[in-house]
Amino acid sequence: MKKTISAFVIIMSVTFIFGINSFAQKAFKGIITYTIAYSGNIDPATAAQQPKTMILSIFENKQKMNLPLGPINIDMITDGDSKTSTTLIDMMGDKKFYKITKEELDKKIAEEPKPVIAYKDETKTIAGYTCKKAEYSITKDGETNTTMVFYTEELGNENLNYGGQFHSLKGVPLEYVITTPDGIITTWTATEVKKGKVKETDFLIPDDYVELSAEEKEQMMKMFSGEGEE
């Protein structure tokens, strides 16, 4: 279990939203498929065990991120109207969920360093969309971490990223590169954007999921953020 959570922390090291992630303002309905590639200071055996794809489903102001991680399947549902999120965790049939309220999300934003975003003139076509380049920097404890991201404003604006990994970025990230302090490089690239095939009911909490207690929620969030690591 510890190793599985560690793997998740590697690929989502900047922040686990994914309270994470975000709120679509435009009435886009569809599915974005991302591929995940690993390089840098990571051995091939470890890289082979990491997830290779992520699915992001969007229905107007709701979205759901799906990330399978070995025996664990994680769905992060966010609601752009209420500015809340729900995390669904399926651990080999043991199905739990927890919610992040608007008050909790706003507190998180207030406590974290404000991002500095440098928008560039460079563009790149990704999954059929013309994307603009940005350098997204966070300074914490005297150290600055900069993520290169290509985003499109055709699928939404900065509301899509409220409280998430790219808070205040004025478009939908279709490619970004994360480098951890120990030199592991993870590249997320959208390979396909399909309109339609998404229903509002896809964003409801299934009846067979049980809500975590406040203490269990805190412990789970700490593990996902890396605070639970020994």
- End-to-end Cα distance, whole Å, is 13 Å
Structural class: alpha+beta
Number of continuous helical runs: 4
Biggest sheet, strands in spatial order? Answer: 7-8-9-10-11-1-2-3-4-5-6-12
Low-confidence stretches: 9-26
Instruction: Please give the share of residues in helix.
Output: 10-25%
State the oligomer: single chain
Binned strand content: over 45%
Following the backbone from N to C, one meets helices and strands in this order, namely HEHEEEEEHEEEEEEH
Mean pLDDT: 84
Description:
This protein has 4 helices and 12 strands. It has 230 residues and is of the alpha+beta class. A hairpin with a 2-residue loop joins β8 and β9. About 8% of the residues have low confidence.
Could you give a short description of this structure?
By secondary structure, the protein is of the alpha+beta class. It has four helices and twelve strands, in the order H-E-H-E-E-E-E-E-H-E-E-E-E-E-E-H. Helix content is 16%, strand content 46%.
Show the helix and strand layout.
Layout: H1 2-11, E1 29-40, H2 44-48, E2 53-59, E3 62-69, E4 72-79, E5 84-91, E6 94-100, H3 102-111, E7 116-126, E8 129-140, E9 143-152, E10 172-179, E11 184-195, E12 210-211, H4 214-225
Parallel strand pairs: 6-12
Antiparallel strand pairs: 1-2, 1-11, 2-3, 3-4, 4-5, 5-6, 7-8, 8-9, 9-10, 10-11
Task: Provide keyphrases for this structure.
globular, 4 helices, 230 residues, alpha+beta, 12-stranded mixed sheet
